């Protein structure tokens, strides 16, 4: 018996994250398409794919906001 896997039927979640203490830098430590480790508030760790990144420069400085897909 063969089971076909397609992404069309896959559940997708988007989450908001904060990069801790700006320790990790976009373009140096991670890029689009990378799988990164995410730890939730309960301490559970899982991999998530970087699907987009918003980079903002304003009066408050620079901010990088990645979007991840679990």
Q: What is the terminal separation in angstroms?
A: 28 Å
Poorly predicted residue ranges: none
Helical stretch tally = 0
Mind describing the biggest β-sheet? 4 strands, antiparallel
Category from helices, strands and their pairing: mainly beta
Mean pLDDT: 77
Label the overall shape: globular
Order of SSEs, N→C? Answer: EEEE
The number of E-state strands comes to 4
Sheet-strand content, in percent, reads 35-45%
Rg is 15 Å
Bin the helical content: under 10%
| Major sheet strand order | 1-4-3-2
Description:
The protein has 70 residues and is an all-beta fold. Helix content is 0%, strand content 43%. The protein has a 4-stranded antiparallel beta sheet, with no helix packed on it. A hairpin with a 5-residue loop joins strand 2 (35-39) and strand 3. The two termini are 28 Å apart.
């Amino acid at each position: 018996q063969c089971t076909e896997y397609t992404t069309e039927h896959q559940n997708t979640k988007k989450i908001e994250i904060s990069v801790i203490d700006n320790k990790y830098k976009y373009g140096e430590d991670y890029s689009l398409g990378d799988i990164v480790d995410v730890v939730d508030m309960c301490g559970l760790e899982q991999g998530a794919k970087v699907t987009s990144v918003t980079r903002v420069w304003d009066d408050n400085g620079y901010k990088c906001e990645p979007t991840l897909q679990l």
